[in-house]
Model the fold of this input.
Amino acid sequence: MRSSTFRVLFCLLFVAVSGDAQIAKVDESLPRLDALYPARGPIPVIYAYGEPYERGVQIGTQLRAFDPDIVPRMAAARWDWVMTGIEHEISRGEILELIPDYLEAIEETMGKDIVDEYIGEMRGVADGAQVPFNDLFIVNLGGHYRKYFIDERGHNLSYYNGADGCSSIAVWGKATKDGKMIASHNCDWARNFPNNAHAAVVMHPANGNPLIYAAPIGTWGSHHIASDRLFVAGLALGKPKAKPRYLMPGGPNGMLQRWIVQYANSAAEARSMLDSKGGVGDRGYASPSGNVVYVDENEAMYLQTAPDKIGRIPNEDGYNLVTNHVVLDEMRSHFVQRKPQAVGDGFVDPEAGSINRRQSEKFLIEKNYGNLDVKGVIDIMSSHYDISSGRDNIFADTACQHGEYKGRFSGTNLSTVVKLSEKSVWIALGNPCVSPYTKLTFTSLEEVKRAADLAMKRIASTPTQQ
Ligand SMILES: [Zn+2]
Done:
């Protein structure tokens, strides 16, 4: 085993030294995995501005320029996911027939203006990417639609039950070097396609706040997204006891959180907008509960939400953080207690990984208390420090997650750090321990317009490859 590893290393070294491309060449004719090790490196960036449909077209067109197949592939993968387990009960055709009814139903919970804005943007993305609207609908709303609309028609679909990832920390005041707020979020998720296909969007919408976010391609963005005055993040949080009503309060989370970050001026206002829709949940998937993080320049608000109760995690002096378990005693009775899982000869607490991750991150915040800056926060989000062993451990549940060492596809596939006082967002694609952070800055409408127009012009002048 070991000697063969050395042999491979030796061969690689030989190729590198000799520079002979004939010895080792990727055979493009052979099928390959999308990559066990996820997309990582500098994140692709898209610029968009204007009215919903118009900016959608800009996004879709730029995605198509990255790769003409990327949005159709994303849609195909999301379709498969939506149909899994119900393919014998309902056909794709029947699913499509119900979409207008669904849109009418969410207009009642969300309000027509909100639905028009984000469905309009989605129509633009579809047209720009040259895919049918229904495919983009499934990319953005498939999870919610399946669980809360199709299910009501006599199906009994399971909730999305993955809940082993994501970390969000915020530091400010005495914890940071200059006293200013720095917020962050690591997205831990499956890293095979389509879950590793992300792009960053820099947007000046015609109405509301300018936005910067990284999200699965073709989606609105909602899981971690910044405006020039607010950062919003969502994290999975167990299974609530209360069954969400038909079209759960607030409607689709992706649309709800995107609306909040685009129009709220502060964390407090974000919370009242969430309450105004009776909203719960984390992200655009069919998650009936979730941690919701709202951070402005002066205040960090960490919420744990279930359909029947929202609790706020008290801030420490200069920091707060959350992973994926219930930390508020008042919320515990609102969630189904997770059963210990069999591992090897014993059983493990299913929350142990999340608890370990939060404790490890808390240790690092306290260790660097008073000296934290953007680099310091990036160091924490990229860290493998494991408090249970007191050292770096790539196999443990740490801020930067590596499922590949545990035989899983999951791991950290995006990391976002935001400093609103500097109007800047840093985004790393893939594991932040090895991936560079791209710094994106909130800038004027004129500059975003110039960047978007330039990209669109370049695409228009490039001959289409067929
Ligand atoms: Zn790492």
